[in-house]
Each structure stands twice: as structure tokens, then as C-alpha cells.
Amino acid sequence: MTQYVLRRLGFLLLTLLFTSLIIFAVTQFLPGDPCRVILGREVGEAALEDCREDLGLNVPVPIQYLNWLTKFVSSDWGTSFSTKTAIYPLVMNRLRNSLWLAAISLVIAVPVSILLGVIAGLNENKLSDTLINVTGLSVVGLPAFVTGVVLIQIFAFNLRILPANSSIPPESTFSEALPMLILPALTITLILLAYFTRLTRAGVIEELKKPYVRTADLKGLPRRVVIAKHVLRNALLPTITVIAISFGWLISGLVIVENVFNYPGLGRLMVFAIDRRDLPLMQAVTMITVVGFALANLVADLMYAALNPRIRFK
Amino acid sequence: MHPGSEIPILNVENLTVAYQHGETWQNAVRDVSLRISSGETLGLVGESGSGKTTLLYGIMRYLPAGGRLRGGTIELAGQDLSALSDAEMRHVWGKQIGMVPQNPQTSLNPTIQVGEQIAETVRHHLSLDGPAAWRRVIELLEMVHINDPHRVSKSYPHQISGGMQQRILIAMALSTEPILLVLDEPTTNLDVTTQAEILDLIGEQIQVHKTAAIYVTHNLGVAANICDRIAVMYAGELVEEAPTSGLFEKPLHPYTQGLLDSVPRLGETKSSLRLRAIEGQIPPIDEHPPGCVFAPRCPIAIEICKQHTPLYVPDTGRRTRCHRWEELMLEEVFARQKPAPKIQQQDEFAEEDQTLKLENISVHFPVKRSLREALSRSPTKTVKAVDGVNMQMSKRETLGLVGESGSGKTTLARAVMGLVEKTGGKMELLGISLPSRLSERHLDTLRSLQMVFQDSDGALNPYLSIGESLRRPLISLVGINRAQADAEVDKLLNAVHLRSSFAQRLPGQLSGGEKQRVAIARAFASNPDLLICDEPVSSLDVSVQASILNLLNDLQLENHSSLLFISHDLAVVGYLADFIFVMYLGQIMQEAQAVDLFDSPYHPYTEALLSAIPVADPQALQDFIRLEDALPNPTDELTGCPYHTRCQRTLGNICEQETPPWQEDENGKRIYCHIPLEELRAAQKRAFAQPRSERE
């Protein structure tokens, strides 16, 4: 098992290294002179030269890459072109927000979807299954800006129990932010539910057909033990890995939800950076996103190995 | 055993089980009655479609959603099971009925330790607490002769061998001391030697616990071994029931006789008799003829057989559903006939004609190394699937290759075909060197070397019609154009006894036996010089098996081909082959002519194989040689004789350290062993069961 973990970690590092190369290379090919962007068009050559010296653009490209990489690893992510503030604290703050939102969403989505998926799987083709499937399909078809707005309308304006706006200030603590996290988390949950439920349902249906379930039944074990103890741990294997992987998406891919709720997450930050051609900021957010995905994948692999003895013991 | 003199543990009366097909219900089991007393083992024998499995699960009240009991009663120790609900049955399952399923690998939960899987049964039914339950688990594992029970109990199913998995399942079933043991073909997927051990274990445990037992199997030999009485099923009906010895000595139903005749027995070869295949096929569930369901296929059917046949009772404990049972009893009528064999013209081919020559063939697979191993520069371990095999086949010869799983026989076949690259040695086909890889071979070679695989399902493209599948080799290998190909396809279908209309059908519409015939037809399409058959009949019913073996024999004679026939079944190989090679762990242990194989001296491994095969004759005497231990780890470096770790006649150090010599006797039999032939000959009594009729 340790071998497996070490190997996976090794791959992770390689992936990150390779991605960093790509990200850096892409920025090299973008047209335009960053110094011109920063200083504007009217400045003289001398000022531009100074700027280039400052930004370290006069050294050979591979050295620039290494400089960039070392700075990145030591949390020196430079200054944003657009906000003129340090990038590292900004990105970290947004990351924290996104992590909170992702966590709350999963805390709601995972138990509910597993429950619904198991019910649907156990009652294949019966009424409960059809209901769950139809609901899931219709919900997943609704765009986030529709469900988000509807939720705001109901809970913020009609029932007045939750805030309509989720722009949490940077210094807020988790408990302060919590009420503002609920509605966006619900919106995200609706999207996730459809996928996780379907996957769980498929897993349950598949496992129920297997001979070991028959063995368990014919040992006289109560039905609920057969389901909870024997079927679930096999049926949930694919679902769990998908959940782990979706965590990566949840950190940086929620632009629409963040916009609807005015939530200061990484997704909006990226759009902001792209809008303003803020190169260093873009690089930083991309790298963090990649790290997030890679870690999520690693966790998924490790969890799969932990739950599946056939992988754990060769 | 006097059935009926004790209160039966299981009393089934007039049971009918039906399955739902769309709107209608069709009866898979019709009007079956059985009785089993304590300590008695009843065998339920039948082929696919006989309804034996449905009957078994019907009795246990464990039918899938579309299945239902439609009549009759099931009494277990006086309690009527047919009225119980699913929840109520859960008090019976595991407690009063213990089941041993087929296919141990998939019948155990892959993510739970095997000890726990037994412990939960014991905790639930016997109300034992944690530590007490685990003590019981260890006791049970010892009862089923598992060495190192503590380690095994903490293992996961994939970490233990098939035989051990089956022992776990047996221990599980017996853990609550059930009154009825239900066994659903528990040895079907196991090696012959493992099967023999498991059968021994089952027999022993049944004796010790005195449970009543039902044993479902399609293998009459196994039934003869274990069962006190046997019930034969055909197309959902019970056609005959008798005490075991009576059934084999004097079967009173033509179907039973047909089953007994279609199985080749050890010692019978194609030159001594022709296997009798039962004509026709089992009728589909909705097309049963009125009257006797076997009549359309029965060689002695008469007018009255078109009327419904009741169960006659010729004697206590015997029942048969044949109108003509009296004539069968008095042998006035013979349903069993041994058709005259086809004599092969031996003198026609020159001795020099060599089809296949294999010299020192090796196929070694490197084992993936961990990072640590690579860094430490230790030598890469290899699995020596095939290690130094020499073989020669003459024209029109059938060479049988026998071995169990892990012997390397399939790898060898694939190496010859070019599907797997050999790592050493030379191959020659018809005197011309054979490249290792398929892609390097000429079309001519492909035409002259064809293969038939075990899995007929996977061998045919499900999207191509049969005609199309047969046309392809004709067009690409033989070179005829599409228009002429149709006529050829017709000829091929007829050669394998399939109607021309089959050309339009899809593989999904054919039975296993029919698909295998198509695969054989396709293999013979290019008129190959050498046909390799890798377990072509292993997944087929016994009666279908007989017809396929006859077919292979006939086609080989007509086409003047050579046949390399691979199987784990010594009786089948012994029947069809001229020459037999026995393989173990990648090396050949013995070479002999088929007729000589069954006379001593034998290689000790052959001896063990022969004694492990269950024979369909309960009176047969058998030397039980049981191999201890599992196969050695395939990556271990083996010195000396590969069989020395399990050999029942090992001479000690010499077998471990020195490679054995090849010893040859006057008949051309060659044995790879240190023990001198004379000693073997003297020490080995007849190693396999001699059918009663041939003794004295």
C-alpha cells in the first residue's frame, strides 16, 4: 500500500511540474509587452527598460521559468497588474471561500444523493425509482442561474430567512459566513445530486445482480444488513471516486453560481483576471486550480485503494 | 438406506415453478416430487435447461422477481415453506438450510475478509458474541482442513485459491449445523485435482454432521461419487430417480442411458467406440410436445409416448417416466447402443510427414518490478509459463495436451498460433520455420493453422450473421470470390450438421453447441493442416459434447488435418487423441500413445490426475491420491523436477535438485521422472477406476 501511495504522490508532483511548464510557456507566447500594459503607452524607453529589469524579463526564458517556479513555491506570487496588491493573500482568501462553499455543498449533497440513489437502485423500475430519476433529470437540466435565482426569490424575498447576497467580507469567520453559504450550496447541490444519485443507483443495481449478494441472502442475514454491509461498500466505490474528483471542479468551476450570489470565490477571480489581462494573477489562479484537481484525483485514488482490497493487496 | 422409513427432512410434492415471460407464465419445473431423509444425499442431475437449478432455488424459495411457485408444497422438517414470506424465510436460510454455491470467486464478497463472512452468520444465527464467533470461525476452518486458519480468516477472497474459497463456503454453510445442505455444482469451476479434494471434504462433512443434502450437478461421475440416490431432470420434469448403484447398473429411462453413453470413459478411445450423442435438442420452454417430453429425441419412442407419461414405480426407491421401462429392465429393448467406430486408415500417410515441430519452446513473462526491486538490481522474476517443450506431430494425428490451470497448455497453444510471442525455441509448420508473431506470418501459414477456442460466445462476432462469419475466411484465406463463397458456406454448414438456414442467423440466436459448430466450421473453412482446439467442449453439456467430439473426429478424417486437442479432461482427451502429452507447470511430464496412457507405468502426476477423475460408476474402485498443497508460486526458481513439491512418490533430494531424465518404455511411452520405470510399474496399481463391466 505504501508503494501505491508513494507512486501516486510521485505522479502528482510530475503532473504539477509539467503543468507549470505549460502555464509558463503559454504566457510566453501571448502577444504584447507586459511592461507596456503596466505602464501604459506614453512612457519612454528607459522606464520600460527599468520595468523589464524589475520583472526579470531580460534573462533567458528557462531562467525566467525557474525564477517563476521558485517564487511560486515560496509563496511569492508577485503583484497583480490590475489591483496592484499582492497576489498570494488575495488568491488564498478566495481559495478559502471556495473551499467553504465546496465543503458545505458536499456535506448536503453526498448523504442525500447516496440515500436517494440507494432507494432508486433497490426499487428499480418501480415508482420511487421513476420519481427519483425524473426529478434528477429535470433538475440537472435547469441552469444554475435559474435555480439560484429561484432559491433567492423563495428564501430571501418570500420567506426572508436567508440573505440574498453572499458577498462575504474577506475577514469573516466560518460561522459568520455560514448563513450566506446555504443558498449557493443548495444550488450546487441540485446539480451534484443528479449525477451522484444516478451513479449510486447504477452501482447498486449492478451489485445486486452479483452472486455474493445471493450468498449473503441465503445465509439468512436480514435484508438491511445485506444492503448496508455487503452491497453498499461495493456499490459506492465508483460514486466515491467521482465525489472526490468533483471536489476539484467545485473549487474553481463555479463561476455562474458565484456570480448569481455575488460570492467571492476563485471562479470569479479567474474571470476578473482574464478580463483585465492580468497575467500573474491568471497564472496563480490556474496553478492553484491545477493543484486542486490533482490533489482531488490523488485523494480519489487513495480512497479507492483503501476501500477496494484487490487494489490494496496485489 | 431405506427411503421412506424415516421422517423426511425435505418433502417436496408436485412442485411447479414458473417464470414470467412478458405477459405469460411458463413452467420451468413441472410437477416434481422428492423426498430426502436425514443423512441422505440426493443428486439432482441434468443438463442446461433441465430445470435442476430452478428446482433447487424453488425449493429454497429464492426465486428472482419473475419467478413464482405455482403449485405444490415444500416441507422442511414438517414446516411448509411455500407459505412463508421473504422475511420469514430469512430465519430458515442459513439456519436450517445451508447453501454451498457455484463459482466461489464471485460468491464471496470481495471487500470483506473471509473470516468475517463466516463470523457474521454465526453471530446472527447462534447469537455468539464477537470473540466466541471468531473462535468458532477458526474451529470451522480447521474442520475443513485449512492450514494456517488465522491467516486465512483475515484474508480477502482474491488472496486465496479457488479450492480454499470453496472450503470457506462449505464451512459457512455448515457453521450453523443446518438440517439440509444444498449444493449448487460447487466443484464445476475447479481443477480436477482440487475437485477431488473438495468432493472428499463434502462427503466427509455430510457423514460427520449427518445432514440431508441435495447435490445439483451435470456431471454423472461426481454424482456417483457423492450421492446415495440420484434424480435425473429433463426439460423441467423428473424423468428418473433411483439409488445410485441401481441407476448406473440399470438405467430405466432412455435419457439417462443417453447421458451415460455420451460420456467417454477412461480407457475408451475413438478406435474402440463412437460416442453416442443424443439426437436433437432440448425443446424450448414453450414448445413442449404433448405426452413424453423426451419422445422427439428418444430412440425407442412409440405411439403411446405421445400421451402424457406418469411416473412409474418399478421398485422401492425407483421411479421412471418411461412407458417402456419394463422392456428396458428386462433388456428386451436397447436404448444404449455403441455404434461401430470409424476406423482410421493408418497406412496411408508416410511417416516422414511432419505437421508441427516444436523444439525447446519457452514462453517467459517478466513480472513487473516494484521501484525497490529495480533499484536493488535484483534479477527480474519471470513466470515460466512454458519452459522447454518439445513436441512433434505427424500428419493426420491427433495430439492431446492435458493439464490443469497453470500448466501452460493454453499459453503454448497461443504461442504456436502467434498470439503470444515465444521467448525461446523453434517452431516449424510443415517443415517451414514459423515466425513468433502473427503479424510476421504469411497468408499461407494462416490458412494452414487454425484454432477453435473454449468460449464459443466470444469467438463469433455478435454483429455478423453466421454466413458472414463463415464467408470471411473463405474470401480472405482461401481466395474465392463472394459469389462462390455462398455455395461453400452451405457445404460447411452441412459438414457440421447445421441446416443451411443457419447462415442468416445471428450468434445470439444459437445455442452453445451450435455456436461451437460454427466456430469449427469456420476453422475448417480454409482446410487447415493443423487445427488447435483449446478446451472446445468444456463449457458444453455432456450430450452436446459427444456430438462435437464426433464431429471433430469426422472432419479431421475427411480433411486429413492434424489436431492439437487441449483439455483438462483426461477422459475426453484419452478418447479423441492418438498421442497424449501431460503438462505440468510449463513442462511436459509424460508422452504416451492414448491406448497406453491408461496402463502403468504412469508419471506420478498422471497417476494423481487419473485417480482424481470422478467416474460414472459407483462400484468402481479408486486409488485416492490426493495432492497436498497448492501449486508452487510460479515465479519461484524451481530446480529439479517441477512436480517435486507435490509428488506423492518423491525420492527426496534427487527430485529437488536434479532434472529428471526421460525414460522410455517399449511402447514409445516417455516419462520425465527419476523413478525407474520398473519400479513405477510395480508400485502403481491401476490408478484409475475400472468400470465394473470390464473387471474379471
Poorly predicted residue ranges of chain A: none
* Contiguous uncertain segments of 5+ residues of chain B: 347-351, 691-696
Radius of gyration of chain A from the CA trace? 24 Å
CATH class of the domain at 10-240 in chain B: Alpha Beta
Radius of gyration of chain B: 26 Å
CATH architecture of the domain at 10-240 in chain B, by name, is: 3-Layer(aba) Sandwich
Oligomeric state: heterodimer
Report the CATH topology name of the domain at 10-240 in chain B.
Answer: Rossmann fold
SSE string of chain A, helix = H, strand = E?
HHHHHHHHHHHHHH
Report the biggest beta sheet of chain A as strand number plus sense, adding barrel if it closes.
none
The CATH homologous superfamily of the domain at 10-240 in chain B? P-loop containing nucleotide triphosphate hydrolases
Structural class of chain B: alpha/beta
Spatially, the strands of the biggest sheet of chain B line up as 6-7-8-3-9-10-12-11
Helix segment count of chain B?
Answer: 25
Structural class from helices and strands of chain A?
A: mainly alpha
Residue fraction in strands of chain B: 15-25%
